[in-house]
Amino acid sequence: MSDRTDSCVQCVQHAAVSLSSTPDTNSLKPMRTDRFRRPARHARRAFSLVELIVAVTIMAILAALVVPRVSQWIGFTKGKTARADAETISNQVRMYMTAKGMSTLPSDFELVELTEGDGALLNKNQVMDPWNNPYQIRIPGEINLDFDVYSFGADGQAGGEGEGADVVAGDKRN
């Protein structure tokens, strides 16, 4: 046989003898596991005061930029919701007039009448605007010919500007 084959045979024989004999436990070194090892010094380092101040400052700047935009958007959507609700109530008033055979509403008509009885056209929550104030009806209307359904807006008072402006069904100006 060749030298290479002889060395392979010797390796196999040595391995067989090693496996058959019991190992000397006194000569074995204990294995270190990560569970018992102390973490490296740099892994335990906490944030410095400067890093915390920078992080809090960045978060405060972002909040200062985002919060006004979100509140402005919420006010805008409440105005759009009020306009859509006023249009729905206006359509329900027209259905009421048709069902009752009326060509015009009596001057003392209240929107609450649409929420009463078995054939109620609206529920009580539908006559409240997004600012939790009741919708109003004006007979005859200033914007529309027969009547105006409107909300006083966020301020709950007649007139106003911006979010506090009145919202009238059928008003194309705002």
- Percent helix, as a range, is 40-55%
N/C terminus separation:
103 Å
Which CATH class of the domain at 58-168? Alpha Beta
Proportion of β residues? 5-15%
List low-confidence stretches: none
- Main β-sheet, in a few words? 3 strands, antiparallel
Number of helices: 2
Radius of gyration: 41 Å
Side-by-side strand order of the widest sheet: 1-2-3
Name the overall outline: elongated
Overall mean pLDDT: 77
CATH homology-level superfamily of the domain at 58-168:
Glycoprotein, Type 4 Pilin
What keywords describe this structure?
5% strand; single chain; mainly alpha; three-stranded antiparallel beta sheet; 174 residues; 2 helices; Glycoprotein, Type 4 Pilin
Report on the architecture of this protein.
- With 174 residues, this protein is mainly alpha-helical.
- The protein has a domain at 58-168: Glycoprotein, Type 4 Pilin (2-Layer Sandwich), CATH 3.30.700.
- It has 2 helices and 3 strands, in the order H-H-E-E-E.
- A 3-stranded antiparallel beta sheet has the order 1-2-3, covered by helices on one side.
- The chain is elongated and about 120 Å long.
Give a brief description.
The protein is elongated, with a radius of gyration of 41 Å. It has 2 helices and 3 strands. The protein has a domain at 58-168: Glycoprotein, Type 4 Pilin.
Q: Helices, strands, pairings?
A:
Blueprint: H1 3-20, H2 49-100, E1 136-138, E2 148-151, E3 167-168
Antiparallel strand pairs: 1-2, 2-3
